[in-house]
Every structure is written in C-alpha cells, then in structure tokens.
Automatic annotation (TrEMBL):
Keywords: ATP-binding, Cell membrane, Membrane, Nucleotide-binding, Transport. It comes from Gellertiella hungarica. It is a peripheral membrane protein. It holds the Pfam family ABC_tran. It comes from the Bacteria. Its main location: membrane. It is found in: Cell inner membrane. PANTHER family: DIPEPTIDE TRANSPORT ATP-BINDING PROTEIN DPPD, OLIGOPEPTIDE TRANSPORT ATP-BINDING PROTEIN APPD. The lineage of its organism: Bacteria, Pseudomonadati, Pseudomonadota, Alphaproteobacteria, Hyphomicrobiales. Belongs to the ABC transporter superfamily. This is Peptide/nickel transport system ATP-binding protein. GO terms for biological process: peptide transport; transmembrane transport. Gene3D superfamilies: P-loop containing nucleotide triphosphate hydrolases. The keyword Nucleotide-binding applies. Residues 6-255 form the ABC transporter domain.
Length: 293
C-alpha cells in the first residue's frame, strides 16, 4: 500500500470578494503518512485558504477553479457532503490558531472533549470520561479532573491550547492541520506547545500540516516545507535541504531575516524590495517553483 496520505495537485482558486483575484496558483504538495510539513508564507500567501480547503470549510467567496486534493486517493473537492463530513474531525482534524474562540465559552471542557468520542465513536459517558482524562494526561495537564469540570475562561491560553490538541488527537486522525497554533501564546508557552504537537504526532503516527509564517518554527518541527508567496509555491522540499541550500532569493532573504521564533527581539533584515519585484515578475510569467529532491 502506498504511504502517500495527501496529494494536492494543480490547485487554483480565486477570490469572488476581490473581483476574481487569484489566491492560489497551481499549488501542488503531497504528504506521506506521519510526515510533518510546514506551509509557510507571509500574510495573504494563501496558507489559510489551503488549510480551509483541506477542512472543507472554504468560504463561499472563494472558488476553486482547478486542481485536485486527494486524501487517501479520494478527491476532497468533489466528494459527496456526507462522505466529507465523515472524514472531517475524524480523519482530518484541526488545531486552531486561537483556542479561545474555538472553544464554546458556555460549556465545560468535559462536554467539548467527549462530544466526538460519544457521537462519532459511540462511547458511553463513562468510557468517554475515562478517555478524556487519559487525553488530558497525554497533553501534560496535571489535574485533569479539575480541568474537565472547568469552563474555558477558567484556563490559561496555554492550557486551552493543550485541550484543543487533546481534542484534535482524540479520534486518532490521520492528518492534523495546525493553523498557526502558537500565535496567540507567549514565547515560553509557544516552545512547550510546539514540542507537545511534535510529541503527540510522533506518538500517534499522525501527519501534520503546520501553517506558519515562521521558518524558525519549521526548522524546529517540520520534516518538509512548502513556501508560498502570492498563492504560488516558490520552493519546496525536505526542511534540512531547503534551509541548508535555499535556491530561491525569497527563501534566502527569509532565512536572512532570521528565525523569529525564540529570538523575538532580534534585529531583522527586511526582505529587499527587489526580491518582491522578482516574485511578482515570476508570478506574472508563471515561472516554475523550485523543488528539492
Ligand atoms: N473569505 C474570503 N473570501 C474571499 N477571499 C478571501 C477570503 N479570505 C481570504 N481571502 C483572500 O485570499 C488570499 C489569501 O488569503 P489567506 O488567508 O489564505 O492567506 P494566509 O497566507 O493564510 O494569510 P494569513 O497569515 O494572514 O492568514 C488573500 O488575498 C485574501 O484576501
């Protein structure tokens, strides 16, 4: 059996909100079972659009114009809604950017963590409670009984994100989409959460698409990386190869701009304007991306 889990091929999309402006341009990327791939780019590069397409939650104002998105060989873009909802949350799960808004403020953590176990896995309340306790221990929450009884506002941001990670892994998904999961957290907590996601991913053998604007994060936890600009793949390959031997001037300039993660106060070298001019020229002419390996 092939170990290919996800194969996005020639994906293009436009924004109906912005007069048909292209937001993804012929994007291809693939992911093996258990692989962690960083999806990197600055604001507006198209990272969230790809993540939303994967989760089946593209807004109506975004229209896919071509391409396929095969998950275990089946195209998510043309799948019947019923089949899609069986996969979402179960085989493909999300760790959101901001756990505060992702959690329902009016429900205890236990209810939110056990919904999926009861509704999708048919567990009774007692088994679901036991599994929720086990999941909270796995994400290193020390007093899981207390946390299960708590409401989201009673927990710190880092604790809420640990709960979201437990929830994402609760149904043993094959793919987790982590959408800038440390943005809302302070730097020390960010490091712990990154380590935790990598640890959970390894323990469960789960593949992860890690959306970030930070190459420093990619260096820490991703096996491979796809760098986007203006909805186009600029460079992609194994992380070690791309970081050791960046071929595109934009990748080089981003690396020179420094790992922002764990050096938030470091003086950054901004990406020079001529690099953006070259990128825009390449997008206009449809230049090919650089693929390593
Ligand atoms: N709901 C929407 N409807 C139409 N177009 C959208 C919508 N959301 C985003 N876009 C457009 O899609 C393009 C890519 O945005 P996207 O959010 O995917 O980028 P991103 O790389 O995730 O940026 P960020 O890091 O800021 O989230 C932008 O030009 C944006 O204006």
């Amino acid at each position: 059996m092939s170990d290919l889990l996800l194969d996005i091929s020639g994906l293009s999309a436009i924004s109906l909100r912005e007069g048909g402006n292209p937001i993804l341009r012929d994007v291809s990327l693939s992911l093996k079972k258990g692989e962690v791939r960083g999806l990197v780019g600055e604001s507006g590069a198209g990272k969230s659009t790809i993540a939303k397409a994967l989760l089946g939650i593209l807004p109506r104002t975004v229209k896919v114009t071509s391409g396929t998105m095969r998950f275990e060989g089946r195209d998510l873009l043309t799948m019947a809604p019923r089949d899609l909802s069986a996969i979402m949350g179960s085989d493909i799960a999300l760790i959101p950017q901001d756990p505060q808004t992702a959690l329902n403020p009016g429900r205890r953590i236990e209810a939110q963590l056990t919904d999926g176990l009861r509704l999708r896995r048919g567990m009774n309340a007692r088994d679901a409670h036991a599994r929720a306790l086990q999941l909270l221990s796995e994400v290193h929450i020390r007093d899981p009984e207390r946390v299960l009884k708590a409401y989201p506002h009673e927990l710190s941001g880092g604790m809420r994100q640990r709960v979201m990670i437990a929830a994402a892994f609760s149904l043993e998904p094959k793919l987790v989409v982590a959408d800038e999961p440390t943005t809302a957290l302070d730097v020390t907590v960010q490091k712990q959460i990154l380590r935790l996601i990598r640890g959970m991913q390894e323990a469960h053998g789960t593949a992860v698409i890690f959306v970030t604007h930070d190459l420093g994060v990619v260096a820490k936890i991703c096996d491979s990386v796809t760098l986007l600009y203006g909805g186009k793949v600029i460079e992609a390959g194994p992380t070690a190869d791309v970081l050791a031997d960046p071929r595109h001037v934009y990748t080089k300039a981003l690396i020179a701009a420094g790992p922002r993660y764990d050096r938030p106060d470091a003086g950054l070298e901004p990406v020079p304007q001529w690099v953006f001019d070259q990128l825009h020229q390449e997008i206009r002419t449809g230049a090919k991306e650089i693929l390593h390996g």
